Amino acid sequence: MINASPDLPQQLRQTKPLHPRGSPINAVLLTGAEIDQVAGLLSLREREPFQLCATAVTLTALAENTMFGVLTPDLVRRKAVVPAAPLVFPGGLQAQLFTVPGKVPLYLEGDKAESASETAANVGVELYAGDARIVYIPGAAAVTAAIMARIKEADVVFFDGTLFRNDEMITTGTGAKTGRRMGHIPIDGQDGSLAALEGISARRIYVHINNTNPVLVAGSPERVRVEREGWEIAEDGMEIAL
Predict the structure, then answer these.
(1) Cβ neighbours for 207, distance < 8 A, ≥ 6 positions apart
(2) What is the number of other CB atoms lying within 10 angstroms of the CB of residue 133?
(3) CA-to-CA distance for 233 and 220, rounded, in angstroms?
(4) 111: pLDDT confidence band, cut at 50, 70 and 90?
């Protein structure tokens, strides 16, 4: 599983193939330590073993929060993953983390937070199985040439769809920050993700969508527009189960 959002228990209950005896999850791969990427881990504390894979900086953020001590080391094996290094799972699935422009989690921000730096605190995942590959980027402040090169080779792309417009939080009265200040490229705009990723051939799906984003509303002009451009909308959290 990639990331563990707060609604993980409900997703497990709604997905019958994930109902064997005991936990069906044997590995969790994190792309960062934001609350909506890790809070679901607390629902996996039922004495079932699994491997927790993330960059060293993300594992440190978890280690410094004593609440995650409920994931006892004798059952939850932590594996530090270096971006660009291969990661092999049972069944022939391989993964590779790569840095993505973004920022550290909100609760770790200082007075001068960098919102578009490329560090191991914010990564994407490229997954391989035979000739098939998936690129998963739930949080990105920009689309770089390196990101575009990966996306062009992918069969399926899951990409950050947090906000439709950069000032969406401000205009809806739900926040004082722009999307870019929060480390998220907006969908709309001349330099938004819809324009930046125009013409790619992969199946493409927006994920990590904020509740202010009008693409969540079926039939809205914004939803119609992104679907006309070939995008799908995911409406069930930030993690994906493989």
Answers:
(1) 136, 138, 158, 159, 160, 161, 234, 238, 240
(2) 18
(3) 13
(4) low
